[in-house]
Automatic annotation (TrEMBL):
Transmembrane segments: none annotated. It holds the Pfam family UDG. Residues 41-198 form the Uracil-DNA glycosylase-like domain. It comes from the Bacteria. InterPro entries: HI_0220.2 (IPR047124), Uracil-DNA_glycosylase-like (IPR005122), Uracil-DNA_glycosylase-like_sf (IPR036895). This is Uracil-DNA glycosylase-like domain-containing protein.
Length: 211
């Protein structure tokens, strides 16, 4: 899939966007496959410049009704060089591949339900006209949004090839503690990719925007 953002003719119509968000909040498309009651957890603003697309909310995020309200979120904010206040601002949009907590397997959380992406992503992203950078966390997001997705390691290694397009794309592993071994085996990630990412975000989201 390409990352061209096609905007609807009523992109400036906030009432239509708010209506769409209400529809998402009431969504029950995958209710029968969820371990808990549906609770879509997203963070969207028409003013956002950075879009984060990840897996799906974890159990703690579900309980707190807040995206990345866990150890993965702490690591992600560290990777991005953002404070908690900056991360949860209108400058940052968070749109997971699955909007609700999917439940667990013995190896971690279940895969996100594909119906969230198919039903909502294109509609919602169309109302984010100012997005200049996309952070893709993990294989599910990268398979959906990279024109040529190989695997998480190779996608991340090729990060420089995605910087000339608009929006710029940053393929990252998921910040879960389960990826500690991956991080130890790939020191270039912390030494090369993260400094470049943090510099990009500093230019994109200057501190004055959060005052």
């Amino acid at each position: 899939m390409t990352t061209t953002i096609e905007q609807p003719s009523d992109v400036q119509d906030n009432s239509r966007f708010e209506q769409l968000l209400k529809q998402v909040a009431q969504c029950q498309i995958c209710q029968s496959s969820l371990p808990l009651a549906p609770k879509p957890i997203i963070q969207l603003s028409t003013q956002a410049k950075l879009l984060i697309i990840g897996h799906a909310p974890g159990r703690q995020a579900h309980n707190m009704d807040k995206p990345f309200a866990d150890k993965s979120g702490e690591r992600l904010r560290s990777w991005l060089g953002l404070t908690e206040q900056q991360f949860y601002s209108e400058q940052v949009a968070i749109l997971p591949m699955g909007f609700c907590y999917p439940g667990k397997t013995k190896n971690g959380d279940k895969a996100p339900d594909k119906r969230c992406y198919a039903t909502w992503h294109q509609q919602l992203i169309a109302y984010l006209p100012h997005i200049q950078a996309m952070v893709l966390l993990g294989q599910h997001a990268q398979s959906a949004y990279l024109q040529r997705s190989i695997n998480v390691t190779e996608n991340a290694k090729g990060w420089q090839t995605h910087q000339q397009q608009m929006p710029a794309i940053w393929p990252l592993p998921h910040p879960s503690p389960r990826n500690n071994i991956w991080l130890s085996k790939n020191p270039w990630f912390s030494q090369e990719l993260l400094p470049a990412l943090q510099n990009h975000i500093r230019l994109l989201l200057p501190s004055a925007k959060f005052e």
